[in-house]
């Protein structure tokens, strides 16, 4: 499916072109001060306060294990992404007395390309008000098909999500024993490292779908207790052999350049599609204005 065909099939979201492309979001109003603690202590002593706190506990801290997803329109493998772990960096700021969320480089291209081949489910433990604001910037085109709120992401039970475990993969940045869990390197914006990890993970997922259709868990198991970036880098060298400069000699760093070229191409496809979508949205908005 071509880029133009794919973008035309995306749902119309009226707020897309009103968003800015900032990569840092701040939420100082969620810093809990002494006054709020005192007020909460007084409120919980009242009958209404107890009822409210019980409801908040039930909604925010219940023993949730995930939700059953609706049946698929067409069969696709499903990728679960821990949003806070994989796509964001969360840091406390004493300057604003709140959290700052930085979006990982190439997160937009990663989600856009991935959603063409996978059903994408985002997992978040953030309150809806915060996560909705972040996702407006992180995923303005609705590439994440379903958003699953889990106060404790460790309790997600993939047996409860109404999907075949053989075609599920969960992307995380912490080592786990889950047979569907793939651990990638944590991103650190201050150190400026792992900037290519998302695009290399995208390459892995696209190749996984093409080359392993029976059971993803066999492949995931081979990466357990290994550094994903290094282990998959070895596989990439066999998938993308270096071109030969001469008859017997390969071009120095040929494989790395080939991989970077593929990543750049995918990012450029996303940028082209994004420009196309936003232009379509502007035209749609102008047409609606003229009808009034």
Account of the 3D structure:
The chain is an alpha/beta fold and about 290 residues long. The chain has two domains: about 65-90 and about 100-240, HAD superfamily/HAD-like (Rossmann fold, 3-Layer(aba) Sandwich), CATH 3.40.50; about 240-280. It has helices at about 5-10, 35-45, 45-60, 85, 105-115, 130-140, 195-210, 215-220, 230-240, 255-290, and strands at about 25, 80, 90-95, 100-105, 120-125, 145-150, 170, 180-185. Strands 6-5-2-7-8 form a five-stranded parallel sheet. Strands 1-4-3 form a three-stranded antiparallel sheet. α5 (about 105-115) packs parallel to α7 (about 195-210) and α5 (about 105-115) packs across α10. The longest helix is centred in the C-terminal third of the chain and has 38 residues, at about 255-290. The protein is globular. Mean pLDDT is about 75; it is low at about 1-20, about 25-40, about 50-65 and about 245-250.
Low-confidence stretches: 1-22, 27-40, 52-63, 244-249
Query: How many strands, which pairing sense, and closed or not: the largest β-sheet?
Result: 5 strands, parallel
Average pLDDT for all residues: 77
| Number of distinct helices | 10
Give me the strand/helix succession: HEHHEHEEHEHEEEHHHH
Helix/strand-derived class? alpha/beta
Total of domains: 2
Radius of gyration: 22 Å
The CATH topology of the largest domain comes to Rossmann fold
Distance from first to last alpha carbon: 36 Å
- Which descriptor suits the 3D outline? globular
